[in-house]
């Protein structure tokens, strides 16, 4: 009996809601706060270059969490510019972010929780070489193998470059200021005379920092170092074909899982040069959402 009355009541309530909706003709009055956030952003996640592993993960997240958002490809630089603009005006924005990154030092940001684990857990950044580099260039191999630094190191370099420092100058200064660390990377390696090492990288701020630092270290050991900036797919293809001798930009186990499995017979993974990396959807702290699930509301 009571149950029936509730049913009747809710039917009445629904009819009133429907009438209100039709009657006012203005959709915004019936929308929830979360929907209006999505609308303000045109249901767009501000992404980076299409080849980035994180873009594939973000698209997977849209599917797995059943979101009506689209992941818009652009570039790392366009993404940080969009973030800067939104932040200035306290507007909502969702970006494909990652750590280490200077953006966390500059803005108050948070990763959206990812209860389905689409973006993986802790990532590390590995050094991957073309098979055969060990025999061909044992000294470069040794240095690349021993290259390891921390998120703090990388962010220090990134921040100075972002503040307008010349990339090569910043890398050089960091090497001068961190002689002890760098001497561990070069330990046991002999100086060479003018041999060439090709490093490929993508214009992600984190990889601009790491590739320039290790490139300069190799140069100080007598190598002629060629840095080639490409997209993520071509970067992996280059180290697989031998066009590049090495990359220091392999984000694993999740972000570049597909790339390394495609090329595993042609490359050798020298292991992490940086631990404690992370990728995910990032928003300013002033946004009233905490989880990717909140975007499905
Ligand atoms: N990133 C930065 C890259 C790896 C380095 C997270 C944007 C990606 O492939 O997604």
Automatic annotation (TrEMBL):
Pfam families from the UniProt entry: OpuAC (PF04069)
Listed PANTHER family: GLYCINE BETAINE/PROLINE BETAINE TRANSPORT SYSTEM PERMEASE PROTEIN PROW (PTHR47737), GLYCINE BETAINE_PROLINE BETAINE TRANSPORT SYSTEM PERMEASE PROTEIN PROW (PTHR47737:SF1)
InterPro entries named in the record: ABC_Gly_betaine_transp_sub-bd (IPR007210)
Family matches, as PROSITE patterns: PROKAR_LIPOPROTEIN
Signal peptide coordinates: 1-24
Lineage: Bacteria, Bacillati, Bacillota, Clostridia, Eubacteriales
Keywords in alphabetical order: Cell membrane, Membrane, Signal, Transport
Keyword Transport: yes
Protein name: Glycine/betaine ABC transporter
Coiled coil: none
Chief location bin: membrane
Top-level taxon of origin: Bacteria
Segments forming domain ABC-type glycine betaine transport system substrate-binding: 36-176, 195-297
Organism, as annotated: Clostridium frigoris
Location(s), subcellular: Cell membrane
């Amino acid at each position: 009996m009571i149950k029936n009355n509730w049913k009747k009541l809710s039917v009445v309530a629904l009819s009133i809601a429907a009438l209100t909706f039709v009657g006012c003709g203005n959709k915004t009055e019936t929308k929830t706060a979360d929907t209006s956030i999505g609308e303000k952003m045109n249901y767009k996640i501000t992404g980076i270059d299409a080849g980035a592993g994180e873009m594939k993960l973000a698209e997977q997240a849209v599917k797995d969490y059943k979101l009506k958002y689209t992941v818009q490809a652009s570039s790392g630089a366009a993404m940080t510019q969009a973030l800067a603009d939104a932040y200035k005006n306290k507007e909502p924005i969702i970006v494909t972010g990652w750590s280490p990154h200077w953006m966390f030092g500059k803005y108050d940001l948070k990763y959206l929780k990812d209860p389905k684990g689409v973006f993986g857990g802790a990532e590390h950044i590995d050094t991957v070489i073309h098979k055969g580099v060990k025999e061909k260039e044992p000294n470069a191999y040794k240095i690349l193998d021993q290259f390891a630094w921390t998120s703090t190191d990388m962010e220090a370099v990134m921040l100075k470059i972002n503040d307008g420092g010349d990339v090569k100058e910043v890398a050089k200064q960091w090497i001068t200021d961190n002689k002890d660390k760098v001497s561990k990377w070069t330990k046991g390696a002999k100086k060479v005379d003018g041999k060439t090492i090709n490093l490929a990288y993508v214009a992600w701020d984190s990889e601009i920092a790491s590739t320039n630092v290790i490139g300069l270290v190799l140069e100080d050991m007598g190598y002629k170092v060629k840095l080639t900036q490409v997209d993520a797919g071509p970067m992996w293809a280059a180290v697989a074909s031998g066009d590049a001798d090495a990359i220091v930009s392999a984000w694993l186990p999740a972000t570049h899982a597909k790339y390394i499995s495609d090329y595993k017979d042609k490359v050798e993974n020298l292991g992490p040069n940086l631990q404690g990396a992370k990728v995910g959807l990032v928003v300013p702290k002033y946004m009233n959402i905490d989880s990717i699930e909140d975007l499905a509301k």
